[in-house]
Design a protein that fits this description.
By secondary structure, the protein is of the alpha+beta class. It has a domain at about 35-75 and about 90-140: GTP Cyclohydrolase I, domain 2 (2-Layer Sandwich), CATH 3.30.1130. The chain has 3 helices and 6 strands, in the order αββββααββ. The protein has helices at about 20-25, 80-85, 95-110, and strands at about 30-35, 45-55, 60-70, 75, 115-125, 130-135. The protein has a 4-stranded antiparallel beta sheet, covered by helices on one side. The protein has a two-stranded antiparallel ribbon with strand order 1-4. A hairpin with a 2-residue loop joins strand 5 (about 115-125) and strand 6. The longest helix has 16 residues, at about 95-110. The protein is globular, with a radius of gyration of 15 Å.
């Protein structure tokens, strides 16, 4: 049986993030559990095709597919908390670049993975699709690359 680092509050229950978490502290929604194979490098990938945030200038919705791929160290992100975390962006005015970099920063702060890449593939607006990629390599002294 895998032990969690703390009780998982969202998994297995009908749960909703608090207003504070949604309003500006979505990082607090994320939960983790112990990596079942910490001695092995393996990749975990989550693809979230229903990501929505708001353009901070126009207030119009921005739609994206967010892909998170990482090699865990001691912790893995709990998937339901990740989904709820992504939902917290629905009413947040934020540029594409900030979305992807904030997601990377929040997940790295929680998990301290060996490596992680976050890709945001934003839907076409004005004839242009935007793709933003941010990466982290823990072997490079914890600096984002």
């Amino acid at each position: 049986m895998v032990r969690t680092t703390a009780p998982l509050t969202f998994l297995g229950s009908k749960s909703v993030p608090s207003n504070g978490q949604v309003a500006g502290q979505p990082r607090g929604i994320l939960e983790a559990f112990a990596n079942p194979r910490p001695g092995r490098d393996y990749e975990v990938k989550f693809v979230f095709p229903e990501f929505t945030s708001l353009c901070p200038v126009t207030g119009q919705p921005d739609f994206a597919t967010i892909t998170v791929a990482y090699v865990p160290d001691r912790l893995c992100v709990e998937m339901k908390s990740l989904k709820l975390y992504f939902f917290a962006y629905r009413n947040l005015g934020i540029f594409y670049e900030a979305v992807v970099n904030t997601i990377l920063d929040d997940l790295v702060a929680l998990l301290k993975p060996r490596r992680m890449t976050v890709v945001g593939e934003f839907a076409v607006r004005g004839g242009t699709a935007g793709i933003v990629t941010a990466s982290y390599d823990g072997r490079r002294r914890g600096r984002a690359v």
